[in-house]
Amino acid sequence: MLRIEEVTKKYKGGKIAVDNFSLDIKKGEFICIIGPSGCGKTTTMKMINRLIEPTSGRILVNDEDMLKQDAVKLRRKIGYVIQQIGLFPHMTIGENISLVPRLLKWTSTEKDKRAEELLELVEMPKEFLDRYPHELSGGQQQRIGVLRALAANPPLILMDEPFGALDPITRDALQEEFKRLQRSLDKTIVFVTHDMDEAIKLADRIVIMKDGKIVQVDSPEEILRNPANEFVEDFIGKERLLQGRPNVQTISQVMSKNPISITGKQTPATALRVMKEARVDSLLVTDESGLLKGYIDLEAIDRNRSLDSIDTLIKPSLYKVEEHSLLRDTIQRLLKRGVNYAPVVTESGH
Ligand code: ADP
Ligand code: MG
Questions:
Q1: What is the pLDDT of residues 182-216, one digit of tens each?
Q2: Phi and psi at residue 214, to the nearest 5°
Q3: Distance set, CA 319 to CA 24, 178, 189, 200, 312 (Å)
Q4: Residue 350 falls within a domain, yes or no?
Q5: Residue of 42, 194, 215 to test ligand 1 pocket, by largest number of atoms within 8 Å of CB
Q6: Which residues form the ABC transporter domain (predicted)?
Q7: What's 337's domain CATH number?
Q8: Which of 65, 88, 228, 289 could cross-link to 216 by cystine, CB 3.0-4.6 Å?
Q9: pLDDT tens-place string over residues 287-296
Q10: Whole-model pTM?
Q11: ipTM
């Protein structure tokens, strides 16, 4: 459905942001592009959406060359959700949703009907149409951002870190909701993230990028099982670590640094203080018997200082990796790179 052929982007000044990128995407596929900041993800998305011209290469949607199409035709084919939420603050939610239909010269009746239909998809009341973006929560605004991309019912949706700015709880909810929506609407999705958890949860195939180049393209399971090289291994290392079921003792032995133990009932402020004293970036969450249940990172706690307890910030482990030796290797590698973990036991066994 989408074919990217040997696409390269060289910015003025000589920076090669995307280097000979080729990928074939099937209809209905959910592709996640992931890689560290600056590796060329946004540049790739902007080229697909024709916001910037590739220096060389071709991009085809259903065998039609996107680089030769006019803007209106392109809008029928591609919906775009940008990295910042990007709703226009002076426009109502209804006007924001109807931007592309307006460009396509739909009648007011058509536009209104479609906007109401879209709100129903995410179970938001139609009264929201007359509100302004600042009257909505971050999560609600991002739902509208997604609806706006769906408005003219394009077969291809591009999403550039759409949930990156949201708190972990809202992000989780939106990921679930969006995955369901995508299945029912049968869209082809290209989704950029730097969060491996998110990619594993959503993608049919994951494209891992580094310095403008594709390093590996595979299903999440295959990437976890057979990382192409050390870069991919390192990149997924943190997530893989969190998918194991070590006991506290295993982790403590390996870490031997500063294992700390606090309960999930602690306030964010206490957790932050304890973590800073122990110099740890993340807490591994285990139950009383030492089974790994999930993790919390410092950043998430920092962003949610007003919560009563850190219990709700726990991100569950997604996969079960039974091989402890693998887990031990991963922890050791992370420790070498200066990333510290500490086990935390929650009272609730959460
Ligand atoms: P990502 O989205 O993966 O963080 P980008 O595609 O935004 O990466 O950027 C890739 C590289 O291209 C970075 O090194 C960035 O500094 C550079 N870059 C991005 N936009 C421009 C631009 N308009 N002019 C020059 N260099 C740019
Ligand atoms: Mg980007």
A1: 888 889 999 999 888 788 889 999 999 999 999 99
A2: -80, 130
A3: 28, 21, 23, 9, 20
A4: no
A5: 42
A6: 2-236
A7: 3.10.580
A8: 228
A9: 555 555 666 7
A10: 0.71
A11: 0.98
